[in-house]
Design a protein that fits this description.
By secondary structure, the protein is an alpha+beta fold. It has 2 domains: 1-98; 106-269, Heat Shock Protein 90 (2-Layer Sandwich). 50% of the residues lie in helices and 19% in strands. The chain has 7 helices and 9 strands. β4 (171-179) and β5 form a beta hairpin.
Length: 280
């Protein structure tokens, strides 16, 4: 009888331990998801911050030239606050992990307009290095179905990356074209390119390129990793080719028409209909 009671108590103890483990696992999973989303937001804020800083530096140079001491004072306050904000974001990001964002919000959109919108987000950052951003497209009003917010986030990350690793007075060329049932957007820069080791690791989480161009910039090492995750959540992909000393080409591939996405063992499955339309 005593032995039976001991076995029952032991069983209840095991069930209780398993229940506690389950609760902690569920809580940890929820917290991880929140942290991953937060880190994606931090990276996007970093891009906007870079543009604000570039615009401020442009105005600061003008204020110095015009000997406007009041404007110089206020612009320096802005610059210092941006620096503090960037440092705060970097400290918050150190212990946060990034994972795939899967929520979709698909609507019809004009692809060239979305590309131009992403370019505008990077204009001041490019101007600081006197880099020209050109868009080449066979269409002026090509309508596609996609998640506009994700599309712009991916492109702005890729464009910012191209500008960052381009030489001063260089050019970033964005080409839009159709490849079967996909819309391709290629971002080509004339920067230093990547070594074979960098190409193998460029999409890895937290990877930072060898000999980064600006050690003072925040570099969370998540831009390309996060962009590829977003692209895959849309049923697409990001491809890269690079020649060391000549530059790199990142190509975003997005399905022209996609049904709601399913997944099997974490692998996205997109059901597509044949698109008979051709570029004008």
């Amino acid at each position: 009888m005593v032995q039976a009671n001991a076995i029952i108590l032991y069983f209840i103890y095991l069930v209780f331990i398993m229940y506690i483990i389950f609760l902690n696992y569920s809580k940890t999973k929820r917290l991880k998801k929140m942290n991953e989303t937060f880190l994606m937001i931090i990276h996007d804020i970093k891009n906007y911050s870079a543009n604000i800083d570039a615009a401020g530096q442009f105005l600061l140079a003008k204020a110095y030239k015009e000997n406007n001491s009041s404007m110089v004072k206020h612009l320096n306050i802005i610059a210092n606050n941006i620096k503090e904000m960037n440092g705060l974001m970097e400290s918050y990001s150190k212990s946060i992990k990034l994972a795939e964002t899967t929520k979709e919000n698909i609507n019809e959109a004009e692809v060239v307009s979305l590309v131009n919108e992403a370019v505008k987000l990077c204009t001041f950052y490019a101007r600081r290095k006197n880099i020209t951003i050109e868009v080449d497209s066979p269409w002026s009003d090509r309508i596609v179905k996609l998640d506009k917010s994700k599309f712009i986030r991916i492109l702005s990350n890729l464009i910012m990356n191209a500008v960052k690793y381009s030489d001063e007075n260089g050019k970033v060329l964005i080409s839009i074209y159709q490849d079967g049932n996909f819309i391709n957007v290629s971002i080509e820069d004339n920067g230093k390119g990547m070594s074979e080791n960098e190409l193998r690791n460029v999409f890895k989480k937290y990877y930072r390129a060898e000999d980064s161009v600006d050690s003072n910039e925040i570099n969370l090492g998540i831009g390309l990793y996060g962009s590829r995750k977003l692209a895959r959540s849309m049923g697409g992909e990001i491809l890269v080719e690079s020649t060391e000393g000549k530059g790199s080409i990142f190509t975003l591939r997005i399905p022209i028409k996609a049904s709601p996405m399913f997944s099997f063992l974490g692998i996205p499955i997109v059901l597509k209909k044949k698109d008979k339309s051709k570029p004008a």
